[in-house]
Design brief:
six-stranded parallel sheet; Rossmann fold; 2 domains; alpha/beta; 377 residues; binds ligand GMT; globular
Length: 377
């Protein structure tokens, strides 16, 4: 197949899923064309069958706001025509699905299909804004196929928008060959020179991730267990989080590592992954941690209970219940046999989301959408 993939190219779950999917499809012999404003961060090095098409945006002075949706639609038309695309696969509804709809109207290629994958905040946050809601609903309804990364997100989409459309659930995935626990003694010695336990969190430091909760949980854990906290990623709340660490007097025990391209070593040197999010449609970073045998302590929101098994792969608590999450962490960190059991169970669970299985699901879904515009559940 000739597949056009559009995603946000920077750090973030939806871009990661889109890029890893494109790479895997290319390895299976499909021709994959990434169409975006920048080179996707996970697209490293040359790969056969993978091409990148950059969307250029005019900076004409009249346009106070960049017209990305339109520029993307034009680029989609160009790529579809010259590369004979069978389908556009849009990751994150806004504005990608809208651009794809426009592109399809402009193309004289009636068989080109549009598939939209909903990732989370496109529905739970951004899509709910009045300025986006009508166009979001329209773009989803006009897609030939729609997938969501969890049952939670499918229900939320159907309920919030009253959309009468089949939505296929295709979860996030992980390459368990790459994401596995590797020897990381050097990293561990560097982070925890006195054999402290290591807690880790990775995110885009947005409000929805509740990073201050991560810090407060760690603060409570440290009162009982010698420990260090690693914070991976960057975003709008990072400075506030650094300030909180100084206020709590724990700054020397917390390392802000910023954005990291490769995290397998860091995960392999960690004992607990914390994800106390306010909203999480799936929790890709938790899945990656689980694949590296790191039990997860998370909130009970969104799709997290579809990934995590409470009392086996980690623990789940109510949003904001810092005390309970800290107690769970202390329990695991002070009971080595139990921690080991959880670590192995986390890995086993992650293997159910092995990339090859989920990529095949996407492939079959593409075939069904190409065979007919309406896709039964
Ligand atoms: O987590 C984020 O805020 C980034 C966001 C994105 O769209 O890049 O991630 C969303 O998509 C991921 C991949 O499908 C999911 O694993 C995340 O749970 C989801 N984030 C939220 O729902 C907050």
């Amino acid at each position: 197949m000739n597949i056009g993939i559009t995603c946000y190219p920077t750090y973030g779950g939806s871009g990661v899923v889109a890029t890893e999917l494109g790479k895997a499809l290319a390895e299976r012999g499909h021709f994959v064309h990434f169409i975006s404003y920048a080179f996707p961060i996970r697209l490293t090095g040359f790969m056969d069958n993978v091409m990148f098409h950059e969307v250029e945006i005019s900076n004409y002075p009249l346009f106070d706001f960049p017209l990305y949706t339109l520029a993307l639609a034009s680029k989609m038309v160009e790529v579809a025509r010259y590369e004979k695309l069978d389908l556009f696969h849009c990751h994150y509804a806004i504005p990608h699905a809208t651009s794809a709809y426009l592109a399809k109207q402009m193309l004289s290629m009636p068989n080109t299909r549009v598939i939209t994958t909903l990732h989370g905040t496109d529905i739970t946050l951004v899509g709910l804004e009045p300025s986006f809601l009508p166009v979001m609903k329209f773009s989803i309804e006009k897609s030939d196929g729609v997938t969501a990364v969890s049952r939670f997100l499918r229900e939320k989409t159907l309920t919030n928008y009253g959309i009468e459309k089949e939505i296929e659930v295709i979860p996030n995935f992980v390459d368990t060959g790459k994401y596995r626990r590797v020897p990381a003694d050097d990293v561990r010695r560097h982070i925890a020179p006195n054999n402290e336990k290591v807690l880790v969190h990775t995110s885009n430091f947005r409000g929805v991730k509740r990073v201050p909760d991560v810090i407060r949980i760690f603060d409570e854990v440290r009162m009982k267990v010698a420990a260090k906290l690693l914070l991976i990623g960057d975003g709008p709340e990072r400075s506030q989080c650094e300030l909180l660490c100084r206020e709590l007097g724990i700054q020397e025990h917390v390392k802000f590592l910023g954005k990291q391209a490769e995290i397998v070593d860091i995960l392999s040197a960690s004992d607990i992954f914390l994800m106390p999010s306010q909203s999480e449609s799936f929790g890709l970073s938790a899945l990656e941690a689980m694949a590296c045998e790191v039990p997860v302590i998370s909130s009970s929101v969104g799709g997290l209970p579809e990934l995590q098994i409470h009392g086996q792969t980690g623990y789940i608590a109510e949003i904001g219940d810092i005390d309970r999450m800290a107690r769970y962490a202390i329990d695991l960190l002070t009971n080595s046999p139990k921690h080991q059991l959880f670590a192995k169970a986390a890995r086993m669970r992650a293997m159910e989301f092995e990339a090859s299985k989920i990529v095949s699901q996407y492939e079959r879904y593409y075939e069904r959408v190409l065979a007919g515009a309406e896709v039964p559940a």
